[in-house]
Each structure stands twice: as C-alpha cells, then as structure tokens.
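@here heads up, posting the sequence + SMILES for the zinc ion run so it's all in one place. Ping me if the SMILES looks off, I pulled it from an old spreadsheet.
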Amino acid sequence: METVVVEGREGRTTDFVGELVVPVVTTYRDDKPRWAEFRLYRKPDDEGYVIWRTGNSLIYHSIDSDCETRDGRESGFPKRVRDLDKDAEPCLKCQPPWPDQMPGDTEVRAEEPRHTVSHCKNAAEVVDSLTWDPKTKRRVWTEPVSELLMAANKADPAFQSISQSPTIRL
Ligand SMILES: [Zn+2]
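bot reply: prediction finished. Complex structure tokens:
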C-alpha cells in the first residue's frame, strides 16, 4: 500500500497508508459546473477506512456579490479573471460578465474545491458517514453514494455483511 495525501478543510492535508477500495465515483458531467467526487480508502491491518469527499466548482461570482454558501458564508474567494479556470462560468444569480468580457486584472470571487475527510473504524461507520445528512438529520442515499457502496459491496467482504442488514439495502 502507498501513502495517500489528501487535502482537508482550509488547505490542510492529511496523510495515511491505504489503497482505494473502488475507483473514484464522480458526478461530473460536462454540462454541470459543480460536481462531487467520492474516494474510499482501506487502511491496512483492519485499521479502518478513510472517505475523501470533494465538491468541485467552476462557478465565479461578482466581487461585490451577496451570494452565500449553504452554511451561510460568502461564496468564493477573490481571484483575478486571468487566473480563472479556462472553463469557469459566471454565477446565474449575481451574473458577473463572462471572462472574455472583463479585463484580466478584474477581481471576482471564484468557488474553490471543498474537501471533507472522514476516518471510519469499519465498514458500518463508512455507510453511516456517507448516508447521514446532518442538515436534515436523515439517511439519504444519493446516487453517487449508492454507486460507491454497491461497488464496495462487490470489492470488500466487510461491506457484504453490512448489506445483509435488514435496514440497509444495497
Ligand atoms: Zn453569485
């Protein structure tokens, strides 16, 4: 197994020894400016699992935008137009001009990738962490999470025993 370095919140990194249980699951589509990626790693010697979730975005807001993130913070971080991703797209709500209609040194607020790293003791905790929505306090089986867990179910015997639980249907 290799040492994996993952990005965490606010540019911090975490490293651990492990391997991907299943290939990365992504919701990327080329007509959607925001998408999520899910990576599930297994650590050696029954030390558990690591889930690395990334929210990606190509959206930028005007510099004086009132747009907020789901948790109520100002959307995006200041960036010059010339430093934007070549596929960057203006926010539909605050409607800044397209990049080629602004001087390169104009500042906008570009959304950046958001990373969440969760350490789990076992497969049950992985299922718990992936399906729990803290906002609504309910179990939510989103499409990418179902895809990831179904793949894990095939790749790792620890997930097979969980899928036989009556409350969890994979
Ligand atoms: Zn906006």
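MO: The chain has two domains: 2-27+35-54+114-163, 59-110.
MO: One more: Residues 61, 65, 67, 75, 91, 93-94 surround zinc ion (CB under 6 Å).
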